[in-house]
Automatic annotation (TrEMBL):
<dbReference type="GO" id="GO:0016757">
    <property type="term" value="F:glycosyltransferase activity"/>
</dbReference>
<keyword id="KW-1133">Transmembrane helix</keyword>
<feature type="transmembrane region" description="Helical">
    <location>
        <begin position="24"/>
        <end position="45"/>
    </location>
</feature>
<keyword id="KW-0472">Membrane</keyword>
<keyword id="KW-0812">Transmembrane</keyword>
<keyword id="KW-0328">Glycosyltransferase</keyword>
<dbReference type="InterPro" id="IPR003406">
    <property type="entry name" value="Glyco_trans_14"/>
</dbReference>
<dbReference type="GO" id="GO:0016020">
    <property type="term" value="C:membrane"/>
</dbReference>
<dbReference type="Pfam" id="PF02485">
    <property type="entry name" value="Branch"/>
</dbReference>
<dbReference type="InterPro" id="IPR044174">
    <property type="entry name" value="BC10-like"/>
</dbReference>
<keyword id="KW-0808">Transferase</keyword>
<keyword id="KW-0325">Glycoprotein</keyword>
<protein>
    <recommendedName>
        <fullName>Core-2/I-branching beta-1,6-N-acetylglucosaminyltransferase family protein</fullName>
    </recommendedName>
</protein>
Length: 413
């Protein structure tokens, strides 16, 4: 993703904030306080023949409990949001192709629910879906791609190509540090896909909190989301969209890497105070980069039994993000999991951090070894395709990756 700031300007007719972006260019006109919305709109229609659309995001999604909250971009004027201008958005364009968030009826994923309320809301909505036995959402399943990133996405341009042309089959969710303030162009697939975030500190429960926050937002945002993939800014796709989509949608099991490590960095991190709720024989380890089916995703945000135990008793050198979900799933939902990860990583170099790959590492041979070099079971069938994603790739890997993408990964140039 490039970091072209998506400039916005604010008009203040009395107390309403409008953000304009004429023509997808980053040129902007500044209007002055005192001009009414009607005047502005009329002026634009008459002089520039622009198609003006305005959307105000109503800033209090929690208040409507009967609807998935952030489905409520309203066409009517909402009350002022003087302190939260990012919650209101006016998009203007002379054609419809540039306004993705309008076609999906979504202006922003932002809300001000606490995690607690968010999780409860997600569970409530799921309960309603199940009561209605709503199969329509399973008929058109989507994959939720959840990016847990510190800040920018240096490999964004590769992902842009990956997603291109597959609208309607996926949703993107982006958890970035709250102080990260770079914006993406309006025509980016990442535009408007940030969720409310909290700072994440490596190795602490804040990492798990961010993961659950992503899952809960994705659950709540779109009931068509049936697969939930956690990715980082250093991840790359190993196949084109359709291949990955089919692999995930066709699988009856989730892809969570779970194993019992008898050594110090495994069972050695178990805290005996967790007994009797959690036995050492239940203790599991695994990579945090999971793929969850919707059934497990709901279980993850519903858990109020094991989370507090980990939060209290698993501190470095016990890393909650490596043990909490694996132990929970092992104890309660073993039958829903394949026990393997679909995100490749290289631990062969030893040490606490996995191998990183840059410009000089990107060759067809290297990538094909990851793509086809395995031996795995997929719905009872043996396949050499074990991995759909890989990490960790450095920003300078982007250029060679874009170069091999059309032929190797089957991404359109
Ligand atoms: C969310 O924001 C609205 C106004 O935008 C405010 O009325 C409400 O109290 C806020 N809720 C929380 C939980 O902060
Ligand atoms: C919409 O605008 C883009 C560029 O801004 C242009 O390429 C495209 O052809 C336009 N589409 C229509 C339907 O006018
Ligand atoms: C934009 O889309 C709406 C319906 O989605 C349509 O009525 C309108 O004609 C479109 N405008 C342009 C400029 O394509
Ligand atoms: C973004 O944050 C940096 C510091 O964190 C600040 O210097 C800069 O002005 C901010 N930019 C915008 C557009 O708010
Ligand atoms: C699932 O697998 C079947 C058979 O391999 C294939 O025809 C289909 O397109 C795949 N994808 C979906 C979403 O069902
Ligand atoms: C924990 O293990 C002990 C035996 O080592 C067993 O008696 C006990 O039932 C186990 N507790 C749970 C919750 O599985
Ligand atoms: C995953 O591992 C557990 C044991 O930890 C086992 O019971 C389960 O059958 C395994 N699942 C698959 C699909 O291999
Ligand atoms: C597994 O193999 C069987 C028989 O070859 C085939 O019918 C089925 O579609 C395969 N399933 C998947 C998920 O590829």
């Amino acid at each position: 993703m490039e970091h072209n700031p998506f400039h916005r300007i604010i008009i203040k007719p009395s107390n309403i904030h409008l953000h304009l972006n004429p023509k997808l260019f980053y040129h902007f006109v500044f209007f002055i306080v005192g001009i009414s919305l009607g005047t502005v709109a009329t002026l634009y229609f008459k002089t520039l023949s622009f198609h003006l659309q305005y959307f105000f995001y109503h800033g209090n999604p929690a208040s409507s409990s009967s609807q998935p909250p952030y489905r409520s971009p309203s066409l009517t004027l909402a009350p002022p949001l003087a302190t939260q201008p990012e919650h209101s958005l006016l998009l203007m364009s002379n054609n419809n192709t540039s306004i993705r968030s309008i076609t999906t009826n979504k202006v922003s994923l932002m809300h001000n629910m606490t995690d607690q309320d968010l999780f409860l809301e997600a569970i409530k909505v799921q309960g309603r879906l199940e009561k209605k036995d709503d199969v329509s959402n399973r008929a058109n399943p989507k994959v939720a791609f959840m990016f847990l990133a510190k800040g920018s996405l240096p490999l964004g341009p590769l992902w842009e190509r990956f997603f291109k042309g597959n609208e309607g089959l996926y949703n993107i969710y982006l958890h970035q540090h709250p102080s990260f303030n770079e914006t993406v162009p309006q025509d980016s697939v990442f535009f408007g896909r940030r969720i409310p975030s909290q700072p994440v500190f490596w190795g602490t429960s804040s990492m798990v909190d961010a993961e659950r926050r992503l899952v809960a937002n994705a659950l709540l945002d779109d009931s068509s989301n049936q697969r939930f993939v956690l990715l980082s800014e250093s991840c790359i796709p190993l196949f084109n969209f359709k291949t990955i989509y089919n692999y995930l949608i066709n699988s009856s099991l989730s892809f969570l890497n779970i194993f019992d490590d008898p050594r110090k960095p495994g069972r050695g991190r178990y805290n005996p105070k967790m007994s009797p709720m959690i036995n050492i024989t239940d203790w599991r380890k695994g990579s945090q980069w999971f793929e969850l089916h919707r059934d497990l995703a709901i279980k993850l945000v519903s858990d109020t039994t094991y989370y507090p135990i980990f939060q209290e008793l698993c501190h470095p050198p016990c890393y909650m993000d490596e043990h909490y979900i694996p132990t929970l799933v092992h104890m309660k939902y073993n039958e829903l999991n394949s026990n393997r990860s679909i995100t490749w990583v290289d631990w062969s170099r030893g040490g606490p951090h996995p191998g990183r790959f840059g410009w000089g590492d990107i060759t067809d041979e290297f990538l094909n070894r990851i793509r086809f070099g395995g031996n795995c079971v997929h719905n009872g069938n043996v396949t050499n395709v074990c991995f759909l994603f890989a990490r960790k790739f450095l920003p300078n890997a982007l250029e060679p990756l874009l170069r091999v993408a059309p032929l190797l990964l089957g991404l359109d140039p």
